[in-house]
Each structure stands twice: as C-alpha cells, then as structure tokens.
C-alpha cells in the first residue's frame, strides 16, 4: 500500500524530489501536444474531427450540439439528479456572488483620485473534462463565476462521448447556465482551438478548466506563446491529509481514494505522526479498494502516492506547506490550532466531517484549483478570474499643483524629458490662464 517516508531522515534534496510532481520527465507529452497545436492551427476543424476519431473513438458529423439537442439531453435525466445539480448550482452561486465587491476610491493627495473598476473578460473558453469520467460539476464551477462576472461570450468544449454527444448531466448544467452550444472537442486540441479559433470554434481571450496532462500542457504552451491567458495549471488531482491518532482511518482512506480514482496520475499523500494510523489507513485502503468500481485506476494512483511520518503536527504542516497541495484535509481534533500555520494550499477541509468531496460538488467553494505545487503562487478559480480590474485616475487643478513637481523630479532623475514635459506644460498652462479642468 502506501510507501512510507520518515520526515526527519530526509535531506532537503530528498524532500524537494518528493514534492516535485513532474509528470512528463521525458518531455513526451510536450512533443505530442506541440504537434496537436500545430495541426489545429493549420488544419482547423478537420484536425478536430480527426482527433475525435483517434482519441475519443467517435466519428462526428458536426463539432457542436445546438440548443435543441442540449435541451433534449438535459431533460432526459432523472428528477433527483436535476435537484442535486440545482442545489449545487445555488450553493456555488451563493458563495461566488459575494466575490463581486466594489472597491472604494482614494484621494492619494488632495485633488488626485485613484480607483479600480472591474470589467468582465469578454470571450472566455471553458474546458469540461470528459475522458475517464464526465464532470458536470466542473461545468458549474466554471460557468457560474463566468456568468456572475458578466462575460459576453462563453465557449464550452468537452470531449464527445461514444454516442457523439455529451451526457445528459452536462446538458442539464448548460440549461441551468443558459449556455446554448457545446463544442464536442476534448484534450489539447480543444485548448488549441479556443486559443487560435477555427471555422467552427471562436477564439477566446482566456481559457479555463482542469484536465489531464495533455490539457494542462496545452494550456501552459498556449499561455507562453499566444495572447490567450489561462486560469492556472489545474492538472491531475491531488490531496494531502494531515491525520493523527484522533483521526478515523476509514475516513482518511476514503478521502485518499476519492482523489486517487480521478486518474492514474493523481496523487494522495498521508502526513501523520502515528505509525499505527498508517497501518490502519493501509488496512482501510485495502478494504475500500476491494469494492471500488474504479479500483484499477485508484490502485495505480495509490502506488504513486505515499505516507510521510512526521514527529508532530507542526512538522506535518511544514511538509504540507512545501508540497502545496491542491486539497489539504486536516482530519485531527486540533485542526483549529494548526490552521493558522497554513501557507500554501488550494482549498482546505477542516475536521473529521468535512470530506474533500463536499468542495468537489456542492458546499459552494470552487473545485478548479492549482496542482503540481502551483498553489504556492496561484489561487483557485473565482469570479476574479473572469474579470480584469482597470485602474482609473482623475487630477484636478489643485491635484496637479500638489503632485506636479514630484512627477517632474522623478522624470528628470530617470532622464525622461518628455514625461516631465507632459506635466510642466500643464502647470504652465494652468498658471498662465489660472484655469483648469
Ligand atoms: N485540478 C483541478 O481543478 C481538477 C478538477 C477536475 C478534474 N481534474 C483532473 O482532470 C483530469 C481529467 O482527465 P480525463 O483524462 O478524465 O479527461 P480530459 O477531458 O482532461 O481528457 C480527455 C482527452 O484527452 C485526450 N487524450 C487522451 N489520450 C491522449 C493521447 N494519448 N494523446 C493525446 N491526447 C489524448 C483526448 O483528446 C481526450 O478527449 C483528471 O486528471 C482529474 O484529476 C483536475
Ligand atoms: N477533485 C477534482 C479537482 O481536483 C474535482 C472533481 C470533480 N468531480 C469530482 N471531483
Ligand atoms: Zn474530485
């Protein structure tokens, strides 16, 4: 089961190696993805149709589902599932709506007023994974903040299923989000299509959404080589659970497996000060894997995962901060005391009754989160991710009097005479006419 490392026995180099999640050491994925991007740029829709056949094993007649097709699929699902998606929609909406806060204007000097105003990113692309599992919840996690932000055009791509459509749950999310078209494109080719545009798929300003290694690699290449931005690298799922003798080993094992079942490249890390807990969690993992439908996937992920034995909870938190997990679960009685020590994490789950699945689906927080240690510098998706904040300023006659000389001196010391002149000319005009606007 989980291989075990002892924190105090590891050198800094060993620790760095353990927290490094380089999923493409031979650069094989990089090469594949570069080729896909190039094919989409040169062959457009034809390349997308070819890739649907090659990777998704489906021959498509057209690259999208229209409003009527979406409506039919949406209402083919059960009432219980509709209700659950609606409750999730409402909770996610409630949590995200609060993120639209108006900022105050500030007078930095009398007559010099500065402020910021939000404007939605006009054209956004949402990628909804659909390879090993279709994730309608991801559609809500991306579509709701995009709608709250007020984005004008929302382009949605998801891999086609075997019947050449998307599943009904995804269609029901489109209905809730008032999205009238879904493009049947998956993987790196979807990212390339939204970055460059094709005859069918509009080019967008920013691409959002998680995905497998091909999707994540495509996003990072697009970010570096085009003017299309990305939300963040949100690749294979990860969880780090901090636990001790107060933890329930069955709950801990369940949380580790919940992320392990996402994909063979997922990682689940247990950090604890208790050897006994590691043994119990291993036992529980065996029991739960025996009845898990996706055991074949989860077992590979667990074999690439590990337990870290620490001296105490502070050391455990220190390791967690180095690892910067996408999801951090603190499954101990003393969670309140150590929460203050969190420096790096995408989303945090506190106590024994807060499974990570709550945030994946329905509590309200966003599940599109930075992976591969990017939680050191990125936040998860929020309404802010769909907005630009533009700065504004206005200077009155009193203001230019107050600040003018400072600007002149600073422009002079940088040797930028034209900058200085833009102020001097105004001060002179103002002093000549004794008027200003
Ligand atoms: N970090 C987050 O916020 C977050 C959220 C949800 C899901 N996830 C992760 O998203 C991932 C979803 O992955 P998935 O595979 O199920 O779906 P996916 O939609 O990301 O990928 C499926 C596509 O991958 C492409 N593909 C498959 N094999 C290929 C190959 N050999 N060469 C080139 N392209 C190929 C195909 O085009 C296919 O349509 C999982 O790893 C999951 O952990 C992360
Ligand atoms: N755990 C994933 C983020 O890493 C999100 C998800 C969607 N559905 C289930 N889980
Ligand atoms: Zn999940």
TrEMBL record:
Keywords: Amino-acid biosynthesis, Histidine biosynthesis, Metal-binding, NAD, Oxidoreductase, Zinc. Zn(2+) binds at residues 259, 262, 360, 419. Pathway: Amino-acid biosynthesis; L-histidine biosynthesis; L-histidine from 5-phospho-alpha-D-ribose 1-diphosphate: step 9/9. Its EC number is 1.1.1.23. It is an enzyme of class 1 (oxidoreductase). NAD(+) binds at residues 127, 189, 212. Substrate binds at residues 237, 259, 262, 327, 360, 414, 419. InterPro entries: Ald_DH/histidinol_DH, Histidinol_DH_CS, Histidinol_DH_monofunct, Hstdl_DH. This is Histidinol dehydrogenase. It comes from Olivibacter ginsenosidimutans.
